[in-house]
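Thought: the user asked what Glutathione S-transferase family protein looks like in 3D. I have the sequence; next I should run the structure tool and report back without guessing.
Action: structure_tool
Action Input:
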Amino acid sequence: MQPSLYAHPFSSYCQKVLIALYENEIPFTYRMLGPEDPAAMEELAAMWPVKRFPVLVDHGEPIFEATIIIEYLGLNYPGPVKLVPEDAEEALEVRMMDRFFDNYISTPQQKCVFDRLRPEGKRDPTGVDDAKAMLETAYGWLDRRMEGRQWAAGRSFSLADCAAAPFLFYADWTHPIPDEFRKVRDYRSRLLARPSFARAVDEARPYRKYFPLGAPDRD
Ligand SMILES: N[C@@H](CCC(=O)N[C@@H](CS)C(=O)NCC(=O)O)C(=O)O
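Observation:
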């Protein structure tokens, strides 16, 4: 039986996993979370009361956290694209960059978005300023890091790039990557041209109107 993915196409963490599935053309059942299928959300909540997604279910067992799902797919559904290198030292660098994109790009980006969803008067402008400052610092560091590189770690597309693609995509919508960080902007464009991510972006197009900060008319 093929695995099931509880996910939504507009979610950055879900896109991270979808990229991995598409890279190796792994067959899966898409349990789309949304008003059309309330049972999917009920099943998710029963398995994982935190109710964050994506969650992969394989042989009746839930696997959560996007990074761990990608590691799981590499072990159980290996394909031609090795997203976590077999060499332990190379794998460490990939995991370090995956953590970078999660903690220092996605987390501050989500802070800005979640803040906008709060009612007026319950917002946290200082927290949002801090989050934007973190994004600026992270962009600057990444710009230096990307000198001479095509992908975030090593020479090939990896787990780290699965994280970078949706996180830089939405981070740029949230707090635009300044022109001076040309290498980050070029890397984001390279990620957008990768067929697996281009497919995820296309599948999410119908939901752009729901982006809480207003989606720009590009990408
Ligand atoms: N640490 C989780 C984060 C997942 C996450 O934040 N997912 C968002 C969608 S992008 C979510 O579930 N949002 C729903 C909510 O917060 O209730 C992972 O790596 O998978």
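Thought: the tool returned a structure. Summarizing for the user.
Final Answer: Structure for Glutathione S-transferase family protein predicted. The longest strand covers residues 4-7. The beta strands are 4-7, 29-32, 55-58, 61-64.
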